[in-house]
Write a structure and sequence with these properties.
By secondary structure, the protein is of the alpha+beta class. Helix 24 (about 535-555) runs antiparallel to helix 25 and helix 27 runs antiparallel to helix 28. About 40% of the residues lie in helices and about 10% in strands. Strand 5 and strand 6 form a beta hairpin. Mean pLDDT is about 95; it is low at about 1-20. The strands form six sheets. Strands 2, 7, 8, 9, 10 and 11 form a six-stranded antiparallel beta sheet that branches. A four-stranded antiparallel beta sheet has the order 3-4-5-6, with no helix packed on it. It has 31 helices and 18 strands.
């Protein structure tokens, strides 16, 4: 009887999961249907109508689906999908997470040009993006992962965590998005106010504005209507920060990010990390526009996104070089007094015949890179080509985009012949390249860069972050930097400093104006007992730690957030909570090496060495960095005096991580121990 009850319960749970609510629209008390906005603002409505914002996500219908669903079959890169219609519905027949091929209903489109993806509802309230997309220009199906090798069950499989719309896409393809992730069930109850990026996505909730405008129109009130809630769109830097909510590589800090709040109250933007940017700050990974633009002289001069892009339709304000020469001309606007007055759109400036390849401003100053296979995106750092940096540190230069057969010295000589010899100060890319290469002089150069007020804030923050990642001392001046991006990086980097230094420097930042700074300071002080903290800062630390926990829970469907929670609880000595979150990170993505190492460390510290060893060995088949697991195993078994086994594990680590000083040092110690015991 008991067995039958258990089976019935399991079946009931499975049925609930299978019929979990698909993400859907839901009314918000302070938002209005976009038709209310469009009726009063017809000019803006006309611009928005065909924009990428308007078409960011749509119900799958014959009018919105651009791909060929007439029984077309795509095969390649480990993907096999047949796209077809059944009645009024759109379907894809492909392999699911369980490795079984079946028909999946397509309910929504994602994006419109140059590619369109298709969303499939799966259990747990998920929408999943198929990994085969439609090229809207070439009119063809193509694989987003052409290298293949992504098996069913992998987080990168179309049915996996990293292709999950709720986690990866929804907040920037809808308005007033509410993810509503249930950590215990690993399921979603996602809703939105509008299934596209509409007026209120940028201007903020519009009910008060719309209702006051209606009262004025009916004669029931006088004066201008109540303004929309986002008043941060007027100044250049505040406007850039508003666009960065979606046009930046960043981490969310709040479940509900309201338009108009300062960027670092809602998000932490990524700095110039080696996996995201070239050493000189050129785009490498999929970083969108913000991090590049923050490096530019235009950002420093007060250029806003809307100076070049019409904000309602998203199109450029002019075509070709006319966009740039609106300011870069013999009579530049008084708004930009630092602009040199000259004729830029001429062969004397760009060295190419008018209309020829290389004569467009963007060819040299905004080189493009393809993302998602077919999506060309231009680098918004808007920099001068530097073939000299190519020669010295190996970064790309725009000249080579057309002259790939020429060495950088040739391009240097061409520039020198036309502009003369120039003496340039050290570029920050040279410092970052030295740091990434582990050069001995890098720490001093990074420290100088971190406090150089002439450098962009994102560059200073990146220098601080690099110092912290190497366990090096952070300049205390960075904690008082006027840019909150730098302060946040400095507070996080201070975590490696001795406790006394942290207690002396970080408590004032617990009351910083920006949430990102407060929570970085609180995390760096998380291991400090209450009675060690000055009394006047204890309440602020509690509040900021609460904000830190909320930030991680807002992203609890991402393994990185589970790791952050686990390491926080480990620092506070809460083994049970640390173990819980490490195990949850592993359940979300078994390839996350740091979760296995962190869990093993916590278990070993609690006297559970056998469990720790099993965690490390269980992680090896899927590990993204198996060398780290072998290294941890070597230390673990070596600590038990199993020197032969320690040598085997460390030798495996050395083979996978050649040149790693930690491995070579410990392997030498173990080998010496084996020699002395013979």
């Amino acid at each position: 009887m008991f067995g039958r009850v258990v089976l019935i319960c399991i079946a009931a749970l499975a049925a609930l999961a299978a019929h979990a609510r698909t993400p859907q629209g839901a009314a918000r008390p302070d938002y209005v249907p976009d038709a209310r906005c469009l009726a009063c603002h017809p000019a803006q409505a006309a611009l928005w109508a065909g924009s990428k914002h308007r078409l960011a996500m749509q119900q799958a219908t014959p009018a919105t689906v651009l791909g060929d669903f007439d029984g077309t079959r795509f095969a390649g890169a480990g993907e096999a999908v047949r796209f077809f219609r059944r009645g009024k519905g759109f379907f894809a027949r492909t392999t699911g997470a369980d490795g079984v091929e079946r028909d999946f209903a397509v309910t929504h489109t994602l994006g419109v040009r140059p590619l369109q993806q298709y969303l499939v509802p799966l259990p747990g309230g998920r929408l999943q993006a198929l990994a085969v997309a439609w090229d809207t220009r070439a009119k063809r199906w193509f694989a987003l992962y052409p290298e293949g090798g992504i098996a069913p069950g992998s987080p990168l499989h179309w049915s996996g965590r990293y292709q999950n719309w709720n986690l990866m896409c929804g907040e920037c393809h809808t308005t007033a998005y509410r993810k509503q992730y249930d950590e215990a069930r690993d399921a979603y109850s996602t809703t939105w106010a509008a299934g596209e990026v509409d007026c209120q996505a940028c201007h903020g909730a519009g009910r008060a504005h719309a209702e006051s405008a209606a009262r004025i129109a009916s004669g029931g009130a006088k004066g201008p209507p109540v303004p929309t809630s986002n008043r941060a769109l007027q100044s250049a830097h505040a406007q850039v920060d508003q666009c960065a909510a979606c046009h930046a590589r960043r981490t969310r800090l709040q479940e509900h990010a309201e338009p108009g709040a300062p960027l670092l109250d809602n998000f932490v933007p990524d700095n110039l990390r080696a996996d995201l940017y070239q050493a000189d700050g050129q785009q490498l990974g999929e970083v969108f526009e913000y991090g590049s633009f923050r490096q530019s002289r235009m950002y420093a001069a007060g250029v806003a996104c809307s100076d070049c892009h019409e904000p309602h339709g998203g199109k450029l304000r002019a075509s070709g070089n006319a966009l740039c020469t609106a300011c870069h001309n013999p009579a530049p606007p008084a708004r930009f007094p630092s602009l040199q007055a000259k004729r830029y759109d001429s062969p004397e400036h760009h060295f190419h015949a008018e209309g020829a390849a290389g004569s467009q401003c963007v060819d040299c100053h905004m080189p493009a890179r393809n993302y998602m296979i077919v999506h060309e995106r231009r680098d918004h750092a808007i920099r001068i080509p530097r073939p000299d940096l190519t020669r010295r540190i190996g970064t790309p230069n725009a000249c080579a985009g057309c002259h790939a057969d020429r060495p950088p010295e040739w391009a240097e000589a061409a520039i020198r012949a036309r502009h003369g010899e120039r003496s340039r100060p050290e570029h920050y890319g040279e410092v970052f390249a030295a740091a990434r290469a582990g050069r001995a002089d890098a720490p001093a150069r990074l420290a100088a860069l971190a406090t150089d007020a002439a450098q962009p804030g994102i560059v200073r923050a990146s220098a601080v972050e690099l110092l912290g990642s190497f366990g090096l001392r952070t300049p205390q001046a960075a904690l008082a930097d006027e840019d909150p991006v730098v302060r946040a990086a400095a507070a996080a980097a201070f975590a490696v400093h001795p406790k006394a230094e942290r207690l002396a420097a970080l408590p004032p930042l617990l009351d910083d104006a920006r949430r990102a700074v407060r929570i970085a300071a609180a995390r760096a002080l998380a291991d400090v007992a209450d009675d060690e903290l000055p009394p006047e800062h204890r309440a602020a630390r509690r509040r900021a730690l609460g904000e830190y926990l909320a930030a991680q829970r807002a992203m609890a469907d991402m393994p990185a957030a589970q790791l952050n929670l686990a390491s926080l609880f480990a620092a506070q000595g809460d083994v049970a909570q640390a173990e819980r979150h490490y195990r949850r990170a592993i359940a979300q993505d078994a390839s996350v090496t740091d979760a296995h190492v962190g869990l093993a460390t916590v278990l070993a510290g609690a006297g559970r060495g056998g469990e720790a060893e099993r965690v490390l060995r269980d992680g090896l088949p899927n590990a993204a960095r198996p060398g780290e697991l072998h290294f941890a195993l070597g230390l673990l078994v070596g600590g038990r005096g199993q020197w032969q086994e320690a040598a085997r594990e460390l030798e495996a680590a050395a083979a996978l991580m050649p040149g790693d000083p930690r491995v070579s040092r410990n392997l030498s110690i173990v080998r010496e121990r084996l020699r002395t015991e013979r």
